[in-house]
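Carbon-nitrogen hydrolase structure dump, as promised
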Amino acid sequence: MSQTTTVALVQMTSGIAAQDNLAEIEARVVQARQAGASYVLTPEMSVVFAKDRAGLRAAAEPWAGNGAVKQLSEIARTSGIFLHVGSLAVALGDGRFANRSVLFDPRGEIVARYDKIHLFDADIDGSNAYRESATYAGGKTAVVADIVPFVLGASICYDLRFPALYRMLAGAGAQVIAVPSAFTVPTGQAHWHVLLRARAIETGCFILAAAQGGSHENGRSTYGHSLIVSPWGEVIAEADGAEPGLVIAALDLDAVAAARQRVPALANARDFSLAPGPSPFGNDLKTQAGN
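C-alpha cells r here:
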C-alpha cells in the first residue's frame, strides 16, 4: 500500500514588521491544516525581511528567549502540525547573525535547527559587491530530521547551488529536502526551476521550495514560484507567479525508492581522487591547495 503525506508551502511577501509576518504565517498554517497538511514550510527570512544591517540589528533577537521563536512554537502547537520556519535572522554575540531554519513538531517542541552554510559573496560585473559573510556567520553542519512519515533534509536558498550538500543529505537518509528561498527575479528566471529539478533528480528526493515573491518593503523584488518537485524531477505543484499563498500536494513517499531503483546514482557513487596536472587557475594543484 502506497504511503502518502500532505505538505504545504507558504509563499510570502515578507515585510519589515515581525508581527505582521507572524500573523500571516499563523493564518496560512491554519489554512494548510484545514486542507489536511501535516507539514508546512515557510520561505527564507519569513519573520523579518530587513532593509539593511541597521534594520536587521533592530529586529533580530538572540536565540535564548527569542520572542518570535516562542510565537512560532505556539502556532505549531495549537495547529498540531510540523511547522518548518524556512529561516529567521538570529543575533549572535559577535555582531553578526545566523540565517537559521527551525523545525517545530506538533507539540511546539524544536526538533531541528539549521544555519545556512553557503553565503553569497560575489562581485557582479565589477560594480555591485555582495558580501553576505559580512552580516551572517555561515553554518558548519548539515541537518536531517526524522519527522515521520519521512526523513527531512535542511537547506536554505544559495545552498541550492552546491550539490554536494544535497548528496550528503540523501546519503544520510533524507527522502524530502526543504529549500526555503528568497531568489532574485533575474536568477529565478534563469536558474530556479532547473536547479531544483536537478537536485531532485540527483538525490531521488522530493524537493520542497517555499519562496519569497513580489515587491518587498525593503526595496527588494523576489521571484516567487514556490514549487514541489518529485524524485523523478517532475514539478508536481507550483505557485502561479509571485503572489502570496499556499502550495499543497500529497507526496507518494514510495516514489523515492522507485526513483532510486530506476537510476541508482546514490548506490553507484564511488570515491575517487584527482590526478596531478595543470590547474585551470594557472598554478599546479599542490600550490593551489596551499593558498
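The domain at 4-266 is CATH 3.60.110.10 (Nitrilase/N-carbamoyl-D-aminoacid amidohydrolase).
lmk if u need the other ones
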